[in-house]
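Practice record 12: protein with pyridoxal-5'-phosphate.
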Amino acid sequence: MTYELNEKVRDLVPYDAVAGNYKIRLDANESFLEPGVTLKNQFLSAISDVKFNRYPDPMAKELCEKFARYYGVHPESVVAGNGSDELITVILGAFLRPGDKLMTFSPDFSMYRFYGEIYEKTNIVTEKNENLILTPGEVLDAVNANKPAAIILSNPCSPTSLVMKREAVLHIVENTDALVILDEAYMDFSDQSILDSAVQYDNLIILKTCSKALGLAAIRLGFAVSSKKIVKALHSVRSPYNVNAMTQTIGCVIFSNPGDIRSAIEEIKKARDGLYQSLLQFEGQRGVKRIVKPETNFVLIELERAEFVYNELKEESIIVRRLGDYLRITAGTKEENESLIQALSKIIRRVSQ
Ligand SMILES: *Cc1c(COP(=O)(O)O)cnc(C)c1O
């Protein structure tokens, strides 16, 4: 009559998204743009046609077709998920057996290793060099030395904001037998996608999300793009109605409005470039070690006293993400970025005295 939580989950705490009311949130890499009124009205009118008493389309067929058309991939190479997080859990949970080696890189998206642990994989972490960017040689050396069943990485990378060239990524995929799980969550802000090659390889799964460039973090929608064989396996192991009807409906509307998507991405890229340019004024100041030129919707800066600066920003009601000596700052609206720069000037002046 005593159920004991196993040691794997006993001491876990829920994901530490910073709770609380802060004026400016630049911590989660969401889009700062809300859908426009016309688009929002299309969402609402489409939702009013949802049959709420019925399960949604288990294959999310129309949605996957619209996604495929927007990204120029084959519709049968696409699987939808409840955010790309769900797809990561499904892939790691089912495609790898307990104890199988999962290779991650550091720094990279922290959830990969977390899920690896929960699903009882053997996590192998390869540290990135000082430049924060992987070369295919380094990846393949690590793969050959450790023989992982799968490797998972983001490109462009969160938190580094850097992108690997598509030739480099293809070289990795072509020269390993490991399953390559390639997370292109931020590729809409860059131009090195290998989505067009996804179906050619039987060891590649590419992940996409609507949470970043598309500005739809609220609806929880992600996609996997892969070969026929892997797509069939993914459909077989995911839960049958994993993407709810409202999310499917809104997803169909957004991908039917490619012009809106593209103009939002341009606006976010402009804001990102503006934020990066403004941050460059701190380059060379005492305590500021590096400001990385981004290929994403956020900027990474390396500081001597990142924790202090993070806490001081919080005092000003501005939340960014801290990872060790780094702050990862999401591009916000013009006003938000200006407030951040103002606060940072003050704090950095104080730190460097
Ligand atoms: C934000 C993010 C995701 C998010 O996925 P959801 O679709 O919101 O679950 C996945 N990968 C990376 C690298 C991210 O930064």
